User: Fold these one by one.
Assistant:
Number 1:
Amino acid sequence: MSPTVVTLSCVNLKGGVGKTALAVNFAAYCGTSGRPTLLIDLDPQTNATFSCIDVDEWERHAARHGTVADLLGARDHASAEGKQRSVESIIRRNVFENVDLIPSHLDLFTIDLDLASATAREFKLRRAIKPIENDYEIIVCDCPPNLTIPTQNALAASTHYVVPVSPDYLSGLGIGLLLTRVNKFCGDLEHELENAGIVISRVGRRALHREMTVAAIRERFKDLVLTHTISERVKVSESAAANRPIFDMGDSKASEEFTEISEEILERIGV
Ligand SMILES: Nc1ncnc2c1ncn2[C@@H]1O[C@H](COP(=O)(O)OP(=O)(O)O)[C@@H](O)[C@H]1O
Ligand SMILES: [Mg+2]
């Protein structure tokens, strides 16, 4: 029997909390530790994509081979005969060691309108990746900061999700709402999805309000909150701009933090 792939979505209603940095570097960690990994970028802002490949490479790949917009059935992304591109051709191989990428496309911004009357529109991704999912040990989905169709497709294709949060008052407020919404969505679809935890990310210099926010999040969500945290470090943004994982950037502290958080996530998702 083929092993069951674990699929992890990075979700939060808020932007700028470190979802993409975690998705990309967790995928990179899984790859370097010998696990065949697929990273799927579901955000029309294409940040995970551009953390792995440059714009020219993306343009060529999108034109020749397609993107996640084809898989979800965005308008103008199917051929005249209505034929979809195959998932195999859309995958960009080896963006990092043992990491393949399904790139995103700006056209996902209007996917909710394009699929307004489509049946089973939450399951487009799950169906599309079925033929290749057993090629991987781990699939990581990077989501946009909302719960619209792309995120819904990621959740419906996932076994687990993590919620990166930055330690500020407003970020803390949205966590409860997000968890409730995700539970309701999965209940409606009768889809089992496990919360692998809340990751406190982009922790800046010591400040009383930050410490109070982190303490309040830990008090409220208890064991759901991962022990390790990720600090704010310049090399994290630089690694995205260099299309490299944080582990290649010569910042041992940052590498250590992403290693620890990745190990903790792997333990929680049973890999
Ligand atoms: N730990 C970090 N230290 C420094 N910069 C970070 C860190 N995590 C993310 N960033 C940067 O902050 C911005 C937002 O992070 P990102 O991961 O894209 O958030 P999200 O996906 O939640 O919108 C990006 O420019 C990213 O490079
Ligand atoms: Mg992002």
Note: The two ends are 17 Å apart (CA to CA).
Number 2:
Amino acid sequence: MDIRGLGYVTVRSTDLQQWRHYASQVLGMMVVEDAAASQLLLKMDARPYRLLVQQDTQDGFGACGWEVAGQAAFDQALAELRAAGVAVEQGSVELAAQRQVQALASFADPDGNCHELYWGPRQDFARFVSPVGVRGFVSDELGMGHVVLPAPTFERCRDFYEQVMGFGLSDLMKVRFTPDPAEPEKRIHFLHCNNGRHHSLAIFECPVPSGCVHLMVEVDGLDEVGRALDRLHTHGVKLTATLGQHTNDQMISFYMRTPAGFDLEYGCDGLVVDWSRHTPFESTVVSHWGHDFSVGRQ
Ligand SMILES: [Fe+2]
């Protein structure tokens, strides 16, 4: 399956007003109202949107939208999913129009995480002009960021992503939440698709009620991360991990709670990898410095 990047993410919201404020004033994204479809389009680059926040009866993660190389790749991907016994639903013309793509299909992984696959995004090339002066987000050929999804039945999900969806293992970690050696280790596998971003997806061996561990968006410099941290404090958003630098993708970032209940990692300087020269490794520490996740549990 020739997945070129994480094209978009959908989010479920009971309160679009809350998201309108959070996205524009804290994240620094442009917000376009689509009243007809009861959704907000959050724009962070030349695409019409990268985040789609949809009115729902519950707050939480919706789906990942994966971009494939074109119509032939799309048809091939659907055939591969069906050959693997995955229930694939072809999106209607109306849904494709709403997502602003040529065609899409939806399916779920073995743990019920929802995915959409599409080709041919519509682009109006309107400039990104942040309401709070963010210079820009790092996306384009690297995709809009990365998502970490809960995968309690880990082996089934790992096989699904690697063998059916064609992701490659970037590297892995095993973590415990307590110092107790009797606590079973939880695995995190970091996975890449056909672009240089260190990981577009990671799977974590743990259930998460919001449906997502975190979503990462990348800005183009440390000063932009610092300014976002200032805006978090100004607007009283909950910090869930302090500023730090990851060992594997070298991202300098902080984490905060979103109105959907899952976390958002806001970072810069993420590693871009030449996969022909890469071998996976296991990290025994999450970060070089910082990233105190205990602040999120207080
Ligand atoms: Fe991350």
Note: The chain has two domains: 3-121, 140-297.
